[in-house]
Amino acid sequence: MLVATTNDLAGYRIVKHLGMARGVTVRSRNAVSDFVGGIHAMIGGRITAYVKLAEMGRAEAYSELINHAQSLGANAVIAVRYDATEIMPGTTEVLCYGTAVVVEPV
Question: What are the transmembrane regions (predicted)?
Fold first, then answer.
């Protein structure tokens, strides 16, 4: 699966647009990460517990995007973007979306 944030892929021609593909996950913090994050927030610096949580959410949403695109028959996804929304305190939706396409080498 080719994936790009651009609207085209160098060396490939889009032969079919299949529509939007998306991957969604909802992640929540836990008491341990909140405690560690609170301490780091007071002393400053990188809050590793939250970085890991954010990366896990993005990776899961990306994986869901790929699965959805494959189910549509795509071999590539272009114009990929991420979005995140706090649903409630401590709970965040992560969305990864793009245009599912079929491409072939030029």
Answer: none
Task: Give the C-alpha separation, 14 to 75, whole Å.
Answer: 10
* Domain ranges (residues) in the chain: 2-105
SS3 106: coil
pLDDT value of residue 38:
60
Report which of 26, 23, 6 is spatially closest to residue 14, judged by C-alpha positions.
6
Using CA atoms, how far residue 70 sits from 4, 46, 57, 74, in Å, is 15, 36, 20, 5
pTM of the model: 0.84
2-105: CATH architecture: 2-Layer Sandwich (3.30)
